[in-house]
Amino acid sequence: MKKVKVLLIDPVEGAYNEMETSKPDNPHLGLAYIRSFLNRECNAETRIVEMSPSRLSVRDIEKIVTSYLPDLVGITARTVNILAAYNVAKAIKEIQPKTITVLGGAHGTALPELILSECEHLDAIVHGEGEITMKEIVTKLSERTRGEKLFSGISGLAYRAQNGEISHEIDRELIADLDILPFPDYSIYDLNSYNKVYNPLTRRFDMRFPILSSRGCPYQCTFCMPVLTRKVRYRSVLNVIEEIELMSQRYNAHRLYFEDSTFAINRKWFEEFCQEFMSRGLHRNMQWGFETRIELVQNEDIFKIAKEAGCSYIYFGIESGNEDVLCYAKKNFTKNQVRNAVQLAKKVGINTVAGSFIFGLPSETKDSIEETIELIRELQLDVVNLNILDVYPGTELYDMVDRGVGGIRWLPEMRNNWASYSRKSCQTVVNDLTEQDLIGGLNRAFKVGWLSREKVLTTAFAHRAIVFFLYYLRNDPKQLVKYGKNLFHRRWI
Q: Do domains 4-168 and 196-453 have the same CATH topology?
């Protein structure tokens, strides 16, 4: 059987500006899982190339492909970088026409047929979980299967048949036992090429490693598409702890972030994890954080357990300060629950309490924008993530915009405009709000969120600004000007 060469690529975070994008904080977890799985299960040699950390251009990808000569290239993409993925696929096919190109990720899961019609350089789309689907493609390639037979009969695929029409195989069953998957292997990565994350406890930048304890999300937020479905599957606590110990020993990891869509859904699992984490002594030199739902953390006990076990960071998707807007977004919690969750997290001493907000959701008005800004002022979050609404394919919100639900509507030529995804400019407007109203609200919220924690030129603010300046100067000069502009903008607008 032939040994198959596989190249997995994460394109830049944007359509065109390859050299101007921010470096990611950590390796792409999905590709790392697929590589580990293929190397264990198949007769394969697998490489990963992430373009943003090393500032790679499409020209650099051409050189890598010419040198490595992969049989199969897997490209991951979200909507924000689907055009970059198209550029990569085109470059590969132009220099190695016989190389098989497949695309996976959120955008491919949402729109497999449209993607194949937009990009003739992609042979197939993997939707949903990719490990087993990619394994079956590699297995057929190792048997020297080519043409339409390569993809036929493989669940979880859409592909272009020989007659030019697009064929869809049935959806792949979810992996029931996540413990069967090997741990992501970070030994192949240049970890110094990733963006370090500021640690307010140590007042320095360090690496924050990703970890995933579950797949799937049962909640119904209208602006989100659960790529791994609404069925939640958990790894065992011992399996997760084993990976954490490995990261500590092999990579000297001191910070973790759980990338679960919603952590702590299963309270029993959460408490068992915290107890096991402490019993191994991991809490003594390991900080960790997670994202969870407001309604899941309405009592003090869960924060106490997390704090005792070394949790230093909690992130809430709050999204709005207006309950009508929250209702249209199907957030299913109230402003009082938001206040309670944030207050409890601070009370027990969680070091960093963070929250996200979106401007321009259905039912948004000038008054609701002011309510959101006032809530940001009141909560005094340590980190505030603010965004203009982007409308992603595959979400309920996408259909709501088409139907004008809650007064929301597309701006001209913005529907399926993949170059417009930035979370800082408008694709839609709502009710009587203009683009200027939404962007103006975002800018005022930036100022409020910033100054609610850093009062004018305090010592803490000055120290933090210097630390950030020195970090970007040494590690990412291209972001230094951007940081300076943001600093000035947020403080003085």
A: no
**What's the pLDDT at 19?**
45
Q: Which residues of the chain have pLDDT under 70?
A: 14-21, 451-465, 469, 472, 478-493
Helix/strand/coil (H/E/C) assignment for every residue in the chain: CCCEEEEEEECCCCCCCCCCCCCCCCCCHHHHHHHHHHHHHCCEEEEEEECCCCCCCHHHHHHHHHHHCCCEEEEECCHHHHHHHHHHHHHHHHHCCCCEEEEECHHHHHCHHHHHHHCCCCCEEECCCCHHHHHHHHHHHHCCCCHHHHCCCCCCEEEECCCCCEEECCCCCCCCCHHHCCCCCCCCCCHHHCCCEEECCCCEEECCEEECCEECCCCCCCCCCCCCCCCCEECCHHHHHHHHHHHHHHHCCCEEEECCCCCCCCHHHHHHHHHHHHHCCHHHCCEEEEEECHHHCCCHHHHHHHHHCCEEEEEEEEECCCHHHHHHCCCCCCHHHHHHHHHHHHHCCCCEEEEEEEECCCCCCHHHHHHHHHHHHHHCCCEEEEEECCCCCCCHHHHHHHHCHHHEEECCCCCCCHHHCCCCCCCEEECCCCHHHHHHHHHHHHHHHHHCCCCCCCHHHHHHHHHHHHHHHHHCCHHHHHHHHHHHHHHHC
Give pLDDT, residue 261. 92
* pTM higher than the cut 0.70: yes
Identify the pLDDT of residue 464. 66
Task: Say which CATH architecture domain 4-168 belongs to.
Answer: 3-Layer(aba) Sandwich (3.40)
Options 3.90.70.10, 3.40.50.150, 2.40.50.140, 3.80.30.20; CATH of 196-453: 3.80.30.20
Q: Where are the domains of the chain?
A: 4-168, 196-453
Q: What is the pLDDT of residue 269?
A: 98
The pLDDT value given to residue 478? 66
